[in-house]
Amino acid sequence: MKNLILLLFLLSNISCAHNNPIFDNKEILGPWVMYSVSKAGASTPLYNNGPIISFFQNGTGYINAHIAVSGTFHWTLQKGNMKIRYDKADTSCAFQDSSYSVDFIKMDGGRKLTLEHGDKICYLIGSTQ
């Protein structure tokens, strides 16, 4: 009986170790550069002024916006749906506090991330990990 309880305890810990409530796709981790934003079909390239957005494993992130206000945020990613919430309500950052559909594309030497919310689409590029 004692062995059965120990076995059940170990199995539950092993299964919980693979279930991360913050994200289910590690491709999101690391720094990304936003290179273009599309709204209502009109695309705006950001050239060398695109913000750098970093997603950390603990569910926090940081936006370095170069010429605008930088800020921190919290995020989750589950089943292709990302939720972003800023730490300060007055932060004018690249994303709204909202839910986004997420798409990853692997490219030679990098990765492409698309975040879509309504008629706004943000295109980001990151290096391979």
Give a description of the structure.
- The protein is 12% helix and 49% strand.
- With 129 residues, it is mainly beta.
- The protein has a single domain (21-127), classed as Beta Barrel (Lipocalin), CATH 2.40.128.280.
- Strands 1-3-4-5-6-7-8-9 form an eight-stranded antiparallel barrel.
- 19% of the residues are buried.
Q: How is this structure best summarized?
A:
The protein is mainly beta and 129 residues long. It is built from one helix and nine strands; from the N terminus they run αβββββββββ. Helix content is 12%, strand content 49%.
Features:
129 residues; mainly beta; 12% helix; globular; Lipocalin; 9 strands; 8-stranded antiparallel beta barrel
The strand line-up of the biggest sheet is 1-3-4-5-6-7-8-9
The overall pLDDT, averaged over residues, is: 78
Which consecutive residue ranges, at least 5 long each, have pLDDT under 50?
2-18
The N- and C-terminal alpha carbons lie at a distance of 46 Å
Number of extended strands: 9
For the sheet with most strands, the description reads: 8 strands, antiparallel, barrel
What structural class results from the helix and strand content? mainly beta
The first-level CATH class is given as Mainly Beta
Task: Please give the count of helices.
Answer: 1
Q: What pattern of helices and strands is seen along the backbone? A: HEEEEEEEEE
* Amount of helix: 10-25%
**Domains (count):** 1
What's the alpha carbon Rg, rounded to whole Å? 18 Å
Principal-axes geometry comes out as: globular
